[in-house]
Amino acid sequence: MLKKAAALFLVCASMATWIGCGSTSSKYLYAAIPASNQIVIFREDPNSGVLTQLAGSPVTAGQAVQALAIHPSGKFLYASNSGEGDVSLYKISTAGALTEVTPRTPVGVSPQLLAMDSAGDFLYVGNSGSFSISVFSITASTGALAPVPGSPFPMGVSPINMALSPSGGFLYVTGGGSLGTSGNVQAFTVSQGVPSLVLGSPFSTGTNPYGLAIAPGGGFLYTGNNFDNSISEFTINADGSLTQLASSPFGTQYSGPVALQIDKSGKYLYVANQASTNLAGYSIGSDGSLIVLSTSPFGTAANPSTIAIDSAGKYLFVGNQKGPVIQSFSVDTSSGTLTSIASYGVPGTPTSIVAQP
Q1: DSSP H helix total and E strand total for the chain
Q2: Strand duo 290-292 + 278-284: pairing
Q3: Which is the most buried residue in 57, 91, 232, 282, by most CB within 10 A?
């Protein structure tokens, strides 16, 4: 889901490829559309943030494709198909096109989450219907998946969100909670992909912690608590355990936080508030505490539900339920302010957006 407002840029190459004069190549953006069983592919101009849908896009995906993850090499894309209990592997061409490698890999029931370590060695799949995490090692040359010993690993709760620490040494899974009942974050150390519960886990957070983000430096973790309209702030300790900040939970004036995104510098946190139809922006203090940006909030199309940022940290993309559209925003790295670039129609609500590294 991307942003709006027209941006000026130069077309410096032909062959139907949009390339800004300040860069030699474009990047690609992928969005999962479960309602139509499709993946939409966009070319991103690296100098303007403008998106152009590829010819042949959207491509057919698995039933109720839900979550996407791209290998750090930029050569492979993985998609969890929640309607059929498996994961698809796609090869990414130099022109951004996807070619599926079959057969698909079976996982648990209703796989709705994907996470990958920064080295691209392991893929983690959150199975909301079977309350488990499937873990696979990745063959670097082909992208092929092989289950690690003991996979799938029982969680005890249905995972809502999932993220790995930048080092890849810790896995965090949010879950649980109903109106009046707090949710939690389960913390695991991981060795060769195998998760082991951290002492003291789980750690209490707000109700229905749909949003989850970890600072690039690995020192802080945040959850967006959908029913509480709050953000929980944690310090990540050396052993992977979590300590809640004194200022946490951070109450917001907006409703329905569902997705969190921290910029590449680790200075700013953005929150998609589904019920308030906006993005809230916060600066992150040296102690992990949050301060509302003076230019926040930033308007979106109705019901924003997922956020992504490009590899350079210059552009932020938002998927919205109503429209449905993807919006692109430019990021002012000195102030955290977002400026709308454009909106792009898609066949249905995007549930996951990923940008090529």
Answers
A1: 0, 33
A2: antiparallel
A3: 232
How confident is the prediction along the chain (357 residues), in pLDDT tens digits per residue?
Answer: 333 333 333 333 333 333 334 444 778 999 999 999 999 999 999 999 999 999 999 999 999 999 999 999 999 999 999 999 999 999 999 999 999 999 999 999 999 999 999 999 999 999 999 999 999 999 999 999 999 999 999 988 899 999 999 999 999 999 975 555 679 999 999 999 999 999 999 999 998 999 999 999 999 999 999 988 999 999 999 999 999 999 889 888 899 999 999 999 999 999 999 999 999 999 999 999 999 999 999 999 889 999 999 999 999 999 998 889 999 999 999 999 999 999 999 999 999 999 999
Rounded to two decimals, the pTM is 0.91
For the chain, how many structural domains are there in total? 1
Domain that holds residue 44: 27-355
Q: How far apart are CA 253 and CA 247, in angstroms?
A: 16
Cβ 64 vs Cβ 83: under 8 Å:
yes
The C-alpha angle 276, 281, 283, rounded to 5 degrees, equals 150
Residue 317 corresponds to which amino acid?
F
CA–CA dist 78, 104 (Å, integer): 10
Are the C-beta atoms of residues 318 and 279 closer than 8 Å to each other?
yes
Task: Let me know if residue 140 belongs to a domain.
Answer: yes
Q: In the structure encoding, which two tokens stand for residue 326, read together?
A: 């993807």
Burial 26-65 (b: 16+ CB within 10 A, else e): bbbbbbbbbebbbbbbbbbbbbbbbbbbbeebbbebbebb
Q: 6 lies in a domain?
A: no
Closest CA to 106 of 125, 128, 129, 131: 125
Residue 15 domain-assigned (yes or no): no
The helix/strand/coil state of 84 is coil
Count the neighbouring beta carbons within 10 Å of the beta carbon of residue 159. 23
Residue 22 lies in a domain: no
Question: What is the CATH number for 37?
Answer: 2.130.10.10
Query: How far does Cα 337 stand from its chain's mean position?
Result: 20
